[in-house]
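S1.2 Input.
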Amino acid sequence: MTRLATETCHRKNGAVSSFKLTDLNSVFQPVGPRLPCSPLNTTRSQTTADPSPFLPPGMNAAVRAVVRMGIYVGAKVYFIHEGYQGMVDGGDNIKEATWESVSSMLQVGGTVIGSARCKEFRSREGRLRAAHNLVKRSITNLCVIGGDGSLTGANLFREEWSSLLDELRQQGLIDEEAARSNSELHIVGMVGSIDNDFCGTDMTIGTDSALHRIIEVVDAIMTTAQSHQRTFVLEVMGRHCGYLALVSALACGADWVFIPEMPPEDGWEDSMCQKLSESRSRGSRLNIIIVAEGAMDRHGRPVTSDRVKDLVVRCLGFDTRVTILGHVQRGGTPSAFDRILASRMGVEAVLALLEASATTPACVVSLVGNQAVRLPLMECVQMTQEVQKAMDEKKFDEAVRLRGRSFENNLSTYRLLSYRKFESVSRRPQSSFNVAVLNVGAPAAGMNAAVRAAVRVGITEGHKMFAVSDGFEGFYKGQIKEIKWGDVGGWTGQGGSLLGTKRTLPGKHLDKIAEQMRIHNINALLVIGGFEAYVGLLELSSARDRHSELCVPMVMVPATVSNNIPGSDLSIGSDTALNAITDTCDRIKQSASGTKRRVFIIETMGGYCGYLATVGGLAAGADTVYIYEEPFDIRDLQANVEHLTQKMKTSIQRGLVLRNENSNENFTTDFVYQLYTEEGRGVFDCRKNILGHMQQGGAPSPFDRNFGTKVAAKAIQWITRTLTDSYKGGRVFANSEDTACLLGMRRRAMVFQPVSQLRDETDFVHRIPKEQWWLKLRPLMKILAKYKTSYDVSDSGQLEHVTRVRPRESNTTSAI
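S1.3 Output.
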């Protein structure tokens, strides 16, 4: 019998949450079809721990995923309460976990299994006691959720394991057989930290939720700041890492940001005050300055929020206020992104432990782009420590490089948008190129952030930027005007499309569009939108042989809640929609906590694309999700009803079923509701809810603001390069297929792909890609809902090494 255990511990200056899976001298007997990597007739012990100094939101989702995946492969799971302290103390701190014991955890922040400081674990005597408690239960695999200090401690524990067993045997606490059967300790780490300060992963568990807390406060502050014409200085967490400050500055369009990795140049006081003054002179009624708590100047003096406030008041006389967010950033409900990230990491951690051997180094499960990877734990820890060393030695460029591509890209994008590099308009470079920006298709949160970034980066590159209202319809009607730097101020936090957007395709109006491009001398197009934007770009590029005006660089940035664009794993707006679905499902599930025995049928948007339903179901803990891509019949519906009937016999007496709006033309939401109501009569009752357009509305999430900003900036940079390459004989002429591209996220990188090459990847009838990466998440969702299913491990992470010297980016690919 395989046994698993979970723990949370608290270390100096913070909390540590640990989570353990253990195998007590037994054979794996998987509940579902055997995983290719799970060796039968092999004794395994697995343990997961979170020794993070503080407990970030999303940790419970990781605990839930590891427990349920462990049970799925036939393991017996234990919680170890109070973290490393519980490991040292043993006894009642180690309790068996059941499937039901991790229900209702997804929406809860922190950790439900407790946390405590543990000085004893820092000593060998304490680790000896911990080892004894593990050996008594044959725990030989440890999964640690924490930061670099916690992971380093776990690795030390692993290195000492053999000597600890020898000492226990010499003291007579264990016998030869126990020492032999528990001779190896395997470790897999998951990084839980709101600071995102761990090298080797793009995002750590809890970071996105912390950004949600920050942006909620910033959005609220901006309304009062604008009313009173105030300057606000916001201090956010980040003693050694400026990720939260940097990304929140990008997401809210802050005027200035201070981060530890890149102190401001000498004379920053005058530069900052000049920029704030210029902003007010252009009509802005507020200024936002964001300060990471560990920010310093080039001479090592702290740059505090009070210091910045005093400077602004003294030099400019602006009414200035300070807001210190503090621990509110660590609390609250985890975001959809963090729940999905933690669930994917938890399952990946179990797979890594199943595959571990005597020669396998301790590894950490990381996220690079949209792909889970495994990296040697100590390589990541060493690089993380090198960042601090570089900062201490004032090698700030090196510190930024060591933080990784994601951090570097965020910083470079912020610099592009900062407007600092040109002290006056006259000193900006000027080109002879005119670039038009338009939104096409249904509105999606984050479109405005993308337009803002495109306009400002375009102006920075020296172009004259034009805004087209109401998509292609406004284009052929001549609704085109120049748009300036100040015109897009405050756009990042606005939902919908301020430019206006329609679904009209250009095919029937090509003559008029070509005429408008000639009238306004448009040299390049940036189209931000959904499936209509993709089809529209195809029509424009196909008409180049008939209209020379269309022989210009064209690029599309995907922006749709449906996330149904070929060539891109993610689209602007889909994260905001997922959070709307997840928040609504949380409230609906809570409403059933008192009534019991109730099943909710919820319809989501997405057209024929089941992304929102599937990933929303994973984030909300759905029991079943119906989508078009996975056909179902009446027998499947009956099996799902029976599954819920069995569930009602447990302590979890509620159900959640999601249905994509076009999943089946006959099995409508009303039909499913009526079927469940009839078949569940006497066992449970049903309610239905159609979420509708609330999924398109609301303020964009931090992810969509940041993603839209970075993608649009890259698109404009591509336009600049392509314009330069195609400018010959005094005019722009671009008619090759690689000058009409879609910029999409593919696994680990942003890739410019000719739209003509994406035709074969597209199901035009149903408006979806023929292959969709997220379908591999469906077995994971079913496993966590206690269905017996097979799980494809072909796409699971493989052990790699931390990359220190990266290849140069090409014109078609770039980091995210």
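S1.4 Remarks. Confidence is low (pLDDT under 50) at residues 8-48, 420-427.
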